Amino acid sequence: MARVCFGRWVCEVEDALLDAARPRCGYEPFLVEEGRPRLRLWRRADLGEGARPFQPGQPSLGAVQVEEEGLGTDAPLELLSAELALRALFQLAILRQGGLCLHAAGVAFGEAAVVALGPSGAGKSTLSRLCVQSGRAGLLSDEVVALLPDGLVCGSPFRSEPDLPASRAEARLHAFLLLEKGPAESLSPVRPAALVAPLLGQVFQGEGVTGLSLGAGTLPRLGGLMAPAPGFRLMFRKDPAVAGFLDEWVHGLSPSRS
User: How far is CA 183 from the centre of its chain?
Assistant: First the structure.
């Protein structure tokens, strides 16, 4: 069993599952040698009645069952199934730490992180790549980030693009950004009430698996996690200048425009 660190918790995972997920999950930075495992992920054929498929429309991908000590799964040792199993473990670990997982990009400018939101095609991976290639920022993930109760944003092993490596780094949440593509970089405030729906739409809900979703408790938890940070609408070009623009803004300078 390998040990990975998700958020602040150490978890055990069967080596075969990690190997199967390797092409899509950059889990190497998350491997640790020490620490008492709080959860584990293991494969078994005899899941109980509480098991649910990862994706109801595709039962061949396998199923998962949440238990006190972790997750049991009958996922085959194939790429997508193994990734779904690891995502379920990451989600369970973050939920039990009092946090939430978001389908979002996280970029760290020093000790301050921005969490970028938007539908598919809005530019999460593009923004991540531009910021990282500029050398002015570090990537937490362009696919899945975790919000923790102490105001931190944590990276995950998951990525949507192979050239955007995962990171176990963490940074203090500075702001949420709703992404829009445009002719120049600009930021405009978003009222907290108008930020709730975009954020709630990106919270991982667990596909109805008991233990991987908070149900009605999701909104109160989200409200507490988002309270320390404001929201902004970021309009940006496909240009590395956006990295400098955000870096200056995060550090209290007036952003320059190219």
Answer: 28
